[in-house]
Each structure stands twice: as structure tokens, then as C-alpha cells.
Design a protein that fits this description.
This protein is α/β, with parallel strands linked by helices and about 375 residues long. The chain has ten helices and 18 strands. It has two domains: about 90 residues, Roll (Urease, subunit C, domain 1); about 280 residues, Alpha-Beta Barrel (TIM Barrel), CATH 3.20.20.140. Helix 4 crosses helix 5, helix 8 crosses helix 9 and helix 9 runs antiparallel to helix 10. This is Isoaspartyl dipeptidase. InterPro entries: Amidohydro-rel, Metal-dep_hydrolase_composite, Metal_Hydrolase, Metallo-dep_Hydrolases_sf, Pept_M38_dipep.
Length: about 375
């Protein structure tokens, strides 16, 4: 199947000006400046004139709770599964699923099944083995064999540190887990990333520093999220990134979280860049369909709201429109850098040989007209 998208104002994420994109089945076959004649293919091709609309890579989200999350307030507070319709309209074309707090009533098998359901709908999906707690729950008996033998499992997570709901892992346990994931990843041609849930305890990111300091594991083997959840954690995250680590800001939020000191994700990106954090060290994730719980001073549950998969696209717009961040930089944070951290070499860029995952934006407003995933239109706004 050949598709020619003509006259796209292309951000790949670098601004390429007006271009024609040739899609061959699932991949981008060619990108040609519109100053040149569109390719004459001499064969059947579906031509679509975008008339100068902006085109950006599909977003890459390193933390989505495909089968829901939470339940910290009892069974009545379990969040719902992600629906295919919501996923297709979100602008996220590559999603990584995780279990989170509940690895008792939700399992790696459930997670993998849901990943394959979403993939059957046209998206690209991966998973983390494990959950908040150690020892990790797995499908095959170990983190290493899950990563090595199951195509969708690319790492382990989200393992909780500095949080009262985690298993309080020692630096030695974290280093050992990272070593297993890293080695299996090398054998399987995957990143073996260790995705970390970071709570609001004063220890912040120190467990990761200690794990790296006392072992041969590089800081960048860990990807800690929720770094914008408190002002203190945010500042520690900036230091962590300058030390060679990566940091992930959560785009889903609530009024209560913001009132409690959370740094809005777009502001966090702008402040991190102003603090001279290398942009490639920064990613965004939605925490979609997780619970965003509220606890009182004694850590008792008082309520929750679910995370939203549409939030990364919204935050990307805020980065550009409200904080004046260059398109190339902002798109990198929302797509390219996560693809690199996760070892997804065909994601996060619009270039020949890469997957044809792209968003066609509306004219004159920050919204999505069309989503294309693996060379096929999967969403069109009514």
C-alpha cells in the first residue's frame, strides 16, 4: 500500500518546511521537499493533499495503565481500562503499559492481552514486567526471561521508590534488578529500562543514585517519573538529570495536586530547559488510566481521579504556545526522547525507514485533525 501525503508543513521533529511524504505500508519510504516535484511513481498510489497543515511525529508515552490502576480506596475506586477509541484520538501512537500499585487483581497476563488488543486496533504497544513492589511479578518466572522471550516486554516497572505504597527496596535490590533487566535487554536487542515510580518521601531519587554509585549500572538505565509531583522532588530531579540521569514529567494532574505543590508539566519542561538540563534527558508520560490518589497527612486515602491519555498532546501545545519552547525541542520531549530512552529506534521521528506514525494538526488551533499509525489513518476528527 502506497500513500503520498503532499504539502505537509513537516516537523520531523526538526522543521523541514513544506514536504511530501511517501508511505509504503507501515514505514516512511521518502521525504521530499515540496520545492521539488512530487514523486511520479508510475503505480497505484493514494494521494492526499494536506494543503500546508502541520505534521508531527506520533507521541510516545512511556507510562500508560492499559488495564486501569489504583484501588487504594477499595474495590470501588479501581480505574477503568483504556478504550481503543480514546487511545486512537489521543495523539499517542506508541504506548508502554504498566501494572502499578495493584499486582494482585491485575496481572502481567492481563496487561499483555490488553497490549495486543490495542495493537490489533492499529497502535504500537509495549509493556513493563513487574509492578510497584519487589520481588517483581512476572509472566515467565523472571524479569530477564520476560524481557528476553516476550516481544512486548521491553523493561521492568513501574517500581516504586520513596513511596509508602512501595516495598522500600534497598539500593542493592535496585541495582540487581537493573542488572537483570539490562542484561536481558542486551540479549534481546531491547533497552531493558527500569521505569521508576517516585513518591514524595524526602529520600526522593537518592535510592537510584546509591544503586548506580555502588554498582556498574549507569543512571540512565533508570527512568524515574512523577518528577514534577512536588517542588522538592522537581529540584532533585534537575540535579539527577545533570548527573547523567533521565527524568519524566507526568502530564495528568488534578486541582488538588497542583494546589499541593505539583509543578505543571509544561512549566516543568520550561524550567528544566532554563536550568540548562539537556533536552534529551527529559520525557513526558500521561500515567493514563491510573488513579491520581489523594492522601491526608497520615497517608490515609481521601479520593482520586484517573489519568488521561490526551494530556501529553495538551501539554505539548502548552510548551509551544504558553512557554515559547521551540517546536523541535517540545516534540522531542513528547516523542523522540522517550523513543530513544526505550530503545525504539523506528519511533519518534519522521524520516525514511521510520514507522509512519504521525499527527496532522488542525489549521489555526491546537487540535488533531488526523492520526496515522503504522501507515494507516486510525482517527479523523468529525
Amino acid at each position: 500500500m502506497l500513500t503520498l501525503l503532499k504539502n505537509a508543513q513537516l516537523y520531523a521533529p526538526t522543521s523541514m518546511g513544506l514536504c511530501h511524504l511517501l508511505l509504503a505500508d507501515r514505514r516512511i519510504a521518502a521525504v521530499v521537499s515540496a520545492e521539488r516535484e512530487a514523486p511520479a511513481l508510475g503505480m497505484a498510489v493514494d494521494e492526499i493533499d494536506l494543503e500546508g497543515r502541520r505534521v508531527i511525529p506520533g507521541l510516545v508515552d512511556p507510562l500508560v495503565h492499559f488495564i486501569g490502576g489504583g484501588g487504594e480506596g477499595g474495590f470501588g475506586t479501581r480505574t477503568a481500562e483504556l478504550t481503543l477509541d480514546d487511545a486512537l484520538a489521543s495523539g499517542v501512537t506508541t504506548l508502554v503499559g504498566a501494572l502499578g500499585t495493584d499486582a494482585l487483581t491485575r496481572t502481567p497476563a492481563n496487561l499483555l492481552g490488553k497490549a495486543r488488543e490495542l495493537a490489533a486496533g492499529g497502535l504500537t504497544t509495549y509493556c513493563y514486567t513487574g509492578s510497584y513492589q519487589l520481588p517483581p511479578v512476572t509472566l515467565t518466572g523472571s524479569v530477564g526471561s520476560d524481557i528476553l522471550f516476550i516481544p512486548e516486554f521491553i523493561g521492568v516497572g513501574e517500581v516504586a521508590i520513596s513511596d509508602h505504597r512501595g516495598s522500600q527496596p534497598s539500593p542493592f535490590e535496585l541495582a540487581r534488578l537493573a542488572s537483570e533487566a539490562r542484561t536481558a535487554g542486551m540479549l534481546a536487542g531491547k533497552s531493558g529500562i527500569v521505569f521508576i515510580h517516585t513518591g514524595d518521601a524526602p529520600s526522593h531519587l537518592e535510592p537510584l543514585r546509591a544503586a548506580s554509585r555502588d554498582s556498574a549500572i549507569p543512571l540512565a538505565q533508570f527512568l524515574p517519573t512523577h518528577i514534577n509531583r512536588t517542588a522538592e522532588l522537581f529540584e532533585d530531579g534537575l540535579r539527577f538529570a545533570r548527573e547523567g540521569g533521565r527524568i519524566d514529567f507526568t502530564t495528568s494532574t488534578t486541582a488538588e495536586l497542583l494546589a499541593g505543590g505539583e509543578v505543571p508539566a509544561s512549566e516543568a519542561v520550561a524550567r528544566a530547559l532554563h536550568a540548562r538540563v539537556e533536552p534529551s534527558r527529559i520525557t513526558l508520560s500521561s500515567d493514563a488510566n491510573a488513579s491520581l490518589p489523594r492522601f491526608d497527612a497520615e497517608r490515609r486515602f481521601v479520593g482520586l481521579e484517573p489519568g488521561r491519555l490526551s494530556s501529553p498532546f495538551e501539554v505539548l501545545g502548552e510548551c509551544i504556545d504558553e512557554h515559547g519552547i521551540a517546536w523541535e525541542t517540545a516534540i522531542g520531549v513528547a516523542s523522540t526522547h522517550a523513543a530513544d530512552a526505550l530503545g525504539l529506534s523506528t519511533k519518534g521521528r519522521l524520516a525514511p525507514g521510520h514507522d509512519a506514525d504521525l499527527l496532522i494538526l488542525a489549521e489555526g488551533e491546537w487540535s488533531i485533525d488526523e492520526v496515522w499509525a503504522l501507515g494507516r489513518r486510525v482517527y479523523r476528527r468529525d
